Amino acid sequence: MQQLLGQSRSSQTYLALDTLSQNTCVIKQVEASDPNSVMLKRLKDLQHPQLPRCLDIFEAQEYFYYVQEYIAGESMSARLKRLGCFSLAEIWQMLEQTLSVLKHLHCQGILHGDVRPENLIARTGLNDLVLVDLAIVATGSPEYAAPEQVQGKPVFASDLYSLGLTGLNLLTGLRPIEFWNANDPQHWRDYLPPQPFNSDRERLVQFLERLLVADPAQRFTAVDAIAALELIRGRKQRMTVASLPIHCAKTLNGCHGLGGVNAVAMRQDLLASGSDDKSIRLWQLPIGAACGELSGHQGAVKAVAFHPHNPILASGSQDGSIKLWDCETRQMIQTLTGHSSAVNAVTFSPDGQILASGSSDKTIRLWQAGECIATLSGHRLAVNAVAFSPDGQQLASAGADSLVRLWNIAGECLQIFSGHTQAVRAVAFSPDGMLASGGKGAIRVWDLATGDYRLLSGHSWPVAGLLFSPDGEYLISASWDKLIKIWRVQTGEEVALLSGHTDSVNGIALADGLIASASKDKTVKLWEYPS
Question: Which helix (H) or strand (E) holds 165?
């Protein structure tokens, strides 16, 4: 007696009865002419406790037949229907069990090709999962297939992508077609059940993000995923404690009325914050005492930056102007005009000779001695951030057109970095010349020599601020998800998570053992950072 379990273009899978042993078995029939059928011969000696045992492989009448053990139990899809969405602990269990068998398959040079809830069977419970229905023809289920697999070019990382979608299905109760949007890789986060911040949940979401990276070269491998999972699970009881000893030392009121704080800048003894209320506030460091307010802009202050050597502060505003202020007298020195729309970013070159500004008018302007010496055009949409290289010879710009551009100070575009899927809102150079850029949820750390990048996934909303520690060992990121994260640059490991803001974090600054963060919640927070 046979029952058809499934079929594809060149294969069929049947449930059958072995008349000799009277045991139920599964038979996969593959056309011998299919080039993928040669894979069958490699499966005969494949043994793993989480894979069905191979009972026989033979050829007859232009078909190969792969006979395997029938696994009795409950599939993850059936369990989802019976009990509802999986808990965080159950998702971690599923991932741990499945990664173990995927590692074994990939080390044998075998792609499963069809990882999905229906093919994960619990013999007795979640600690006893079996991965069934190895896809001899690795087309898999279209709903759970990775982009490259859909294009007929599956790789081992394709199984990891399918595992990520499986995890989201079990976490949300929704099928991928209901929550997945290829044009917005973060769209699925909108379907997560709303709840107060939970560090274990956030780490699970970050883990799933690494499985779902569109570029398979940047995706977790099974080995890397197991290492990351072991690290996360090993630290589970202290997830809210940072590896770096950082705590909030003070909270400052940075805005009156509607709106929030958009930007912050620091030098050793002074902090400046720019707000939607059109003002700039000054604070004495390290105590955080208010020591002045600068007024003059006709629109929200979007950016502030200190001169590296002189007591001068530059500010950029929604009113399209840039103002220079004397920090000692608290008086305005000069107003720079030329941009036709909001000024979103200002920064001084390391020697203080040049001021760069980025605007919603799609241009970057370079200023020297109060005069515009160059206008850089190329971005198709607003310029959100600018940063000078450590030697001051290059400038990076981040655009709402999803591009990062690298310029020389003569105004020539040297390189264009693509890869972000939405607006880029932050850029920063490391002391040794690497470039970090932040978009929607993802940070890319670029090697300027090769154009390659490493991906740091962890934020659930756009990254609005980036800066490197003075020694280049750490990268600090701020996001609209209300969080500040600190990453070890060499390994990409998240070593600290700073929470406390109740709305988007719009910008960060670092000086003399303090991190300052500016938020839409109208506050500036000071965090003690081990310098």
Answer: helix 156-172
